[in-house]
Amino acid sequence: MKKAIINGIIKNSSVDGPGNRLVVFFQGCNINCLYCHNPETINFCNSCGLCVEKCPVSALELVDKTLVFKKDLCTNCDLCIKTCKRNSSPKTIMYTSDELLKIIKIYKLFIRGITFSGGECTLHSDFIIEIANKIKELGLDIYIDTNGKWDAVKEEKLIANTTMFMLDIKAWDEEEHIKLTGFNNTDIKRNLGILIEKNKLFEVRTVVIPYFLDNNKTVSEVSKLIKDKNIRYKLIKYRKHGVRGEMDFQSPNDEYMEELKKLAKNIGVEDVVII
User: Per-residue pLDDT tens for 130-148?
Assistant: First the structure.
């Protein structure tokens, strides 16, 4: 039975896909965005113990040089995450697919489906494939929230066994993408095309950062590919709250966001949402 390290579970969400959804955040990410909103999901805990003495309720303990998280004691003050120096969290939990399924069954009557997120959930594709059919037997759909940095050609089973994908296109220009994430976007562009071709793309998301990124180019190029395809384009206003804060990015004003929305609509994208 497959196992995966999970950072957290939101029991009901209306912003992570259609309808009310249970969202599973896997630990671990394969890119390094300067504006990451979930930096504690990037790396895995190395049991350094730095966070143990900071916990006010003794929910963390080093046992034989391995960090142990006592969930029942935790008050979610997040001092441990603020203390961590490696973009990780000691509050992760290892689940088997059956253990996660038990949680899903509790909420199945109140949700439309499951969204796998992260971190980067495709790093745990074997786990998702193993649990997918059991989730579908409950009458729930399965959405994948992804940065696109994976191989869609090799992940045919993942695509076939899940319902739809929500894909980040952070920057169309390769140099900009490397500057923002540390990696090129060759795989991401290829996967965008594959998911469109297979009719598996529900939504594309672009975080808008004035001056630092050529947002007009990204919106234009993405819109050309998804127009007339019944695919939502979500334009996300960069906000400083909750991000890593490594760069002093400027948040776009409403007028600029509306200009980008108009650009996408003029190209032929019918469903454009500003967040």
Answer: 999 999 999 999 999 999 9
